[in-house]
Write a structure and sequence with these properties.
single chain; two-stranded antiparallel ribbon
Length: about 180
């Protein structure tokens, strides 16, 4: 596995909104797979897609399985600024833990990428919820980054366009239509 040095290019693994709204400059973007985590609507959103009084739900990388997403290569001169941006965006309530994972690119090359993994001990960790509760929370959620339904639809559309099948999100999107 190629290990990026602290001063070299940065790889970022996106599995949710980072896929369609990265918010940082990158040199390359390619499909990637990580093992040991799966994409899950497992986080009560109190800021970006909901409020503490009316939480929405956002995606997290939760333990177990595998996850297809996108890997973004950020040029070395932009490494620190990108990490600062990601920390400000992803760690607003500390529900995510910044983690370095092995991401296997479509070319079968392995890179070390930063990703934001859910902390199951955090109060915003929702775990596995019944389907009806997922839909209810998505419908009610609206926060500083917008409507929770838009977030789910945009993520699903981007996954589909990238050739990633996510039956759980598909079932939620079908019910939101």
């Amino acid at each position: 596995m190629m290990r990026d040095s602290e001063n070299g290019d940065l790889w970022v693994f996106g599995y949710g909104s980072l896929m369609w709204r990265p918010g940082f400059e990158f040199e390359e973007c390619c499909p990637a797979l990580v093992h040991g985590y799966h994409r899950s609507l497992c986080i009560f959103s109190h800021v970006h897609r909901g409020t503490p009084e009316k939480p929405g739900l956002v995606l997290g990388l939760d333990r177990g399985g595998a996850c297809r997403g996108l890997a973004f290569r950020v040029a070395a001169p932009n490494r620190q600024a990108t990490l600062e941006y990601l920390r400000e965006r992803e760690q607003v309530t500390s529900v995510y833990v910044e983690t370095w994972l092995t991401a296997r690119l479509q070319s079968d090359r392995a890179v070390t990428a930063v990703a934001y993994v859910v902390d199951p001990r955090h109060p915003q960790y929702a775990g596995r919820l019944p389907h009806a509760e997922l839909v209810r929370l998505v419908r009610q959620g609206h926060g500083m980054s917008g409507d929770n339904i838009e977030y789910i639809r945009s993520t699903f559309e981007h996954l589909t366009a990238s050739g990633v099948d996510d039956p759980d999100l598909a079932a939620i999107v079908a019910e939101l239509s």
